[in-house]
């Protein structure tokens, strides 16, 4: 992973790096690897994640086709 530092602006480069790492799932993987996970627990977790991804994809597909109402947008009550 590479981030270009422009005009010696290290803070901006750090923000860009963190955003890229977040998108790639590096932080999530680091959290998962903190403790040993039994192979059986790993299979259960991965299967549950696959089911959740499939449900989300189906929900998005139905929303695009107009068969399911889109989620209501939250109003920023600030």
Give a verbal description of the structure.
The model has no long low-confidence stretch (mean pLDDT 91). 0% of the residues are buried. The chain folds into two domains: 1-34, no CATH class; 37-65. It is flat. It is built from three helices and no strands. 63% of the residues lie in helices and 0% in strands.
Short description:
The chain has helices at 10-24, 26-32, 39-65. It is mostly helical and 78 residues long.
From the structure above, extract its key features.
single chain, 78 residues, mainly alpha, 2 domains, 3 helices, 63% helix, flat
Q: Could you tell me how far the N terminus lies from the C terminus, measured between alpha carbons in angstroms?
A: 37 Å
Order of helices and strands: HHH
**Shape category:** flat
Low-confidence stretches: none
GO biological process, one term: translation
Region (Disordered): 31-78
Keywords: Ribonucleoprotein, Ribosomal protein
Organism: Rhizobium altiplani
Give the SSE layout.
Layout: H1 10-24, H2 26-32, H3 39-65
């Amino acid at each position: 992973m590479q981030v270009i530092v422009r005009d010696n602006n290290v803070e901006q480069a750090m923000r860009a790096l963190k955003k890229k790492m977040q998108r790639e799932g590096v932080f999530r993987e680091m959290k998962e690897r903190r403790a040993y996970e039994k192979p059986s627990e790993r299979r259960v977790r991965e299967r549950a994640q696959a089911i959740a991804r499939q449900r989300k994809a189906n929900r998005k597909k139905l929303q695009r086709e107009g068969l399911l109402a889109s989620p209501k947008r939250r109003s920023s009550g600030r």
